[in-house]
């Protein structure tokens, strides 16, 4: 059965976003769905540059987005085995704002994200559990 759903995966190439991508391919994606890989580069740019960035998925090298072989392998395998379409969308700006914009612009049925990276110093927990 062809579903034609639009599934977004927020990708920052961290371990947790790769796990989220694998989970989306294994558990959500079905034949005919479109899997949007959404990558956001932070930093301010002029509006014309921002518009160009968000409209094209072919500018990865020009804008210094590193190619990740593990991600490409997952996408290749998923597209062949699950028969899903893969689209990469690149945005520039605040991640929270751009993810919300992507959900609206792409009319996503779902958005899958890895967990936020947090770091705790061992000294932060000393004496707090006594």
From TrEMBL:
Transmembrane segments: none annotated. It holds the Pfam family Usp. InterPro entries: Rossmann-like_a/b/a_fold, UspA. Residues 5-117 form the UspA domain. CDD domains: USP_At3g01520-like. This is UspA domain-containing protein. It comes from Nyssa sinensis.
């Amino acid at each position: 059965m062809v579903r034609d759903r639009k599934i977004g995966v927020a990708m920052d190439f961290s371990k947790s976003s790769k796990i989220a991508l694998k989970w989306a391919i294994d558990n959500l994606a079905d034949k005919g769905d479109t899997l949007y890989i959404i990558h956001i580069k932070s930093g301010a740019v002029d509006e014309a540059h921002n518009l160009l960035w968000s409209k094209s998925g072919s500018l990865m090298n020009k804008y210094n987005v590193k190619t990740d072989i593990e991600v490409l392998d997952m996408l290749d395998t998923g597209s062949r085995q699950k028969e899903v379409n893969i689209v990469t969308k690149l945005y520039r700006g605040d991640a929270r704002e751009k993810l919300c914009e992507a959900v609206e612009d792409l009319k996503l049925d779902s958005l899958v994200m890895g967990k936020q990276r947090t770091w705790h110093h061992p000294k932060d927990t000393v004496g707090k559990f006594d």
